[in-house]
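ok, trying the design again with the full structure, not the truncated one.
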C-alpha cells in the first residue's frame, strides 16, 4: 500500500507541476519526500561519478586563487542537460508541491513566503519544514484555493 501511495504521490506531483492554485495534503508531501531525496542522491552520484562537475579550483593568470566551482556543471551540453533534467523532474514539482501544501494550510502569499524562507535556513529549516509541510493539518473546509484534497485511501479504493 505504501508503494502505491508513493507512486501516486510522484505522479500527482509531476502532473500538477505548474498548478499552483490547488491544494495538496501533508500525506502527499510525506510520500513524495523519499523519492525526491533518493532522486537527488542518485543524480548527484551520477554527476560526480561521470565527472560532469567542476571540482578543481580556478586560479587567475598570476596564480592567485579565484574561486572553487564546487559541484556546478561543466560547460558542455550533456552535463547541463542532466542539470536541467534534475530541475524539471525533482525541484520544480517539489516546490510547486510545497506551494500547494501552504495553500492547503490556508496561508496567503506573505505567510507562505515567510514559512518557505524559514524552511530553507540551515538551522531552523528542518523542524520548520517537518512541521509545516509534513505534520500540520490542512484547512478542513473549502478555502480560496479549492476544496480539501481527497485522502489516498479514497483515491486508491
Amino acid at each position: 500500500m505504501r508503494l502505491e501511495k508513493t507512486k501516486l504521490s510522484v505522479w500527482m506531483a509531476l502532473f500538477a507541476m505548474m498548478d499552483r492554485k490547488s491544494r495538496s495534503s501533508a500525506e502527499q508531501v510525506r510520500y513524495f519526500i523519499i523519492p525526491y531525496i533518493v532522486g537527488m542522491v542518485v543524480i548527484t552520484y551520477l554527476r560526480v561519478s561521470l565527472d560532469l562537475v567542476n571540482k578543481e579550483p580556478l586560479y587567475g593568470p598570476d596564480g592567485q586563487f579565484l574561486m572553487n566551482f564546487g559541484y556546478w556543471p561543466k560547460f558542455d551540453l550533456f552535463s547541463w542537460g542532466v542539470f536541467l533534467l534534475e530541475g524539471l523532474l525533482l525541484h520544480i514539482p517539489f516546490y510547486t508541491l510545497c506551494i500547494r501544501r501552504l495553500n492547503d494550510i490556508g496561508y496567503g502569499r506573505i505567510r507562505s513566503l515567510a514559512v518557505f524562507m524559514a524552511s530553507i535556513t540551515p538551522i531552523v529549516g528542518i523542524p520548520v519544514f517537518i512541521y509545516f509541510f509534513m505534520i500540520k493539518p490542512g484547512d478542513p473546509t473549502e478555502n480560496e484555493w479549492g476544496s480539501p484534497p481527497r485522502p489516498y485511501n479514497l483515491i486508491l479504493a
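Keeping the full-length input from now on. The helical segments are 2-15, 26-49, 77-105, 109-119, 125-135, 152-156.
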